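Hi R.,

As promised on Friday, here is the backbone we talked about, encoded as structure tokens. Could you run it through your design pipeline when you get a chance and send me back a sequence?
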């Protein structure tokens, strides 16, 4: 499959640059399009996306595995990217949106700063009007997680 061949060409090279290859999608036809999504823990700037795009284009031209003209679209997961639960310790200090299996103080959707994860317990600092409240719950209770934008 073409997407698997593209992944095999790009994964190692992107890893050397500090990126994970999150997704590869190729749509063939009149408006052929190759969509590449990269990720890393640190935010990815537009300038970095441009640089990665240029490198990916060069690597794919060199490999010469796509037989038709196509548009290359390189992007990141964005400011509110989904997070894998096992990756949460890497995001301590970040503002996150969490969906919990079991409510904490009546809420199962929380947004706040991820303060710590110790002994399988999460500490999340949330704002309640003008003060900060520290909530504690088991990491096993986190169903879904993503980065969030703090206003």
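Update: got your reply. Pasting your designed sequence below so it's all in one thread:
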């Amino acid at each position: 499959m073409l997407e698997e061949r593209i992944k095999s060409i790009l994964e190692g090279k992107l890893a050397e640059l500090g990126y994970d290859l999150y997704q590869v999608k190729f749509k063939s036809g009149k408006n052929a399009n190759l969509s590449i999504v990269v990720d890393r823990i640190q935010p990815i700037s537009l300038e970095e996306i441009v640089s990665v795009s240029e490198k990916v284009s060069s690597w794919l031209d060199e490999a010469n595995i796509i037989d038709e003209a196509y548009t290359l679209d390189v992007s990141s997961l964005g400011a509110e990217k989904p997070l894998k639960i096992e990756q949460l310790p890497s995001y301590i200090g970040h503002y996150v949106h969490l969906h919990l299996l079991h409510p904490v103080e009546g809420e199962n959707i929380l947004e706040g700063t991820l303060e710590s994860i110790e002994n399988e317990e999460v500490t999340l600092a949330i704002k309640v009007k003008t003060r900060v409240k520290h909530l504690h719950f088991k990491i096993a209770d986190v169903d879904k997680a993503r980065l969030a934008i703090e206003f």
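One thing I noticed while checking it: The two ends are 44 Å apart (CA to CA).

Thanks again,
M.
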